[in-house]
């Protein structure tokens, strides 16, 4: 007969062994899915912060542009760029905003100048791609989505954009718009880099960094960073989870080209209906 102390010791030993075995048998994709869920929640909060910066900063920026629009002299592209740069520099929320472009737009919806290095937007009319910004010309702050090649953040595949338009008033009338936004592909790249930085900061010494991909999902379409394999985006799009309005992350396990991944998706209502962030993660 075993003594009481020995029976307790044996029971504890068996319990630890069982727990270890269970942990050791956990699939790599299951671990990845759990982590991907945490990443998606982290990025959803980042999106809300990014939107808040734009919403707070744009009215302040528009006030600084009143004199420029009142003068109505838009022919000098260099002067317009200086206005863009000075305005952003003077507003803290805009200085740190994650936008991929800022632009000055006249009262007909034509881009006077953007801050892109190669300004493909200059002279283009925004109303066709973003018809809702007509409300900004009527005096309302507008957030909308659309697709315009000149604002794309990736070559060789489709992209689309989120845009915010702030009316600029002078002498009691709307004279134009102060506009900002981001390409979904470029924004996915920024979120992916933010996630990788967060992962690296939390890794234990000699820990292996996982493989991660981030997608901004809009109406079932997954927009990834420019170098993201297209098969990954297509796999994300095929998952039913991107069609849900998930307030908390939904996770699944899957395989892509023979490699185990965990995936998670969460809605981002601040970006509009039918949007969200998806994360693919694979252990290395």
Report on this model:
This protein is α+β, with helices and mostly antiparallel strands and 284 residues long. The protein folds into two domains: 27-47 and 186-282, Beta-Lactamase, CATH 3.30.450; 50-183, PAS domain (Beta-Lactamase, 2-Layer Sandwich). Helices cover 39% and strands 25% of the residues. It is built from seven helices and ten strands. The protein has a five-stranded antiparallel sheet. Strands 7-6-10-9-8 form a five-stranded antiparallel sheet, with helices on both faces. A hairpin with a 7-residue loop joins strand 9 (259-267) and strand 10. The radius of gyration is 24 Å and the shape is elongated.
Provide a quick synopsis of the model.
By secondary structure, this protein is an alpha+beta fold.
CATH architecture designation of the largest domain? 2-Layer Sandwich
Could you give the distance between the termini? 48 Å
Secondary structure category: alpha+beta
What is the multimeric organization of the chains shown? single chain
Give the helix proportion (percent range): 25-40%
Q: What order do the SSEs take from the amino end to the carboxyl end, as H and E?
A: HHHHHEEEEEHEEHEEE
Q: What is the molecular shape?
A: elongated
How much of the sequence lies in strands comes to 25-35%
- CATH class term of the largest domain: Alpha Beta
Residue windows where pLDDT falls under 50 for at least 5 positions: 4-23
């Amino acid at each position: 007969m075993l003594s009481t102390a020995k029976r307790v010791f044996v029971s504890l030993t068996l319990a630890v062994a069982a727990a270890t075995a269970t942990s050791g048998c956990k699939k790599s994709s299951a671990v990845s899915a759990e982590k991907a869920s945490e990443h998606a929640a982290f990025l959803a909060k980042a999106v809300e912060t990014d939107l808040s910066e734009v919403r707070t900063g744009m009215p302040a920026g528009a006030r600084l542009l009143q004199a420029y629009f009142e003068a109505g002299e838009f022919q000098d592209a260099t002067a317009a760029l200086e206005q863009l740069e000075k305005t952003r520099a003077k507003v803290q929320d805009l200085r740190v905003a994650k936008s991929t472009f800022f632009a000055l737009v006249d009262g007909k919806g034509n881009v006077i100048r953007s801050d892109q290095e190669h300004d493909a937007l200059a002279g283009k009319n925004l109303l066709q791609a973003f018809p809702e910004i007509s409300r900004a010309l009527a005096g309302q702050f507008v957030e909308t989505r659309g697709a315009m090649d000149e604002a794309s953040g990736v070559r060789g595949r489709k992209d689309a954009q989120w845009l915010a338009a702030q009316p600029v008033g002078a002498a009691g009338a709307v004279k134009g718009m102060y506009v900002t936004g981001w390409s979904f592909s470029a924004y996915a790249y920024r979120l992916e880099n933010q996630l990788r930085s967060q992962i690296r900061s939390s890794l234990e010494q000699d820990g292996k960094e996982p493989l991660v991909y981030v997608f901004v999902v809009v109406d079932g379409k997954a927009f990834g960073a420019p170098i993201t394999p297209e098969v990954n985006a297509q796999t994300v799009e095929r998952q039913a989870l991107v069609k849900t309005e998930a307030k908390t992350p939904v996770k699944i396990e899957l395989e892509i080209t023979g490699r185990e991944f965990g995936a998670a998706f969460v809605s981002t209502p601040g970006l509009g209906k039918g949007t969200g962030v998806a994360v693919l993660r694979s252990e290395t």
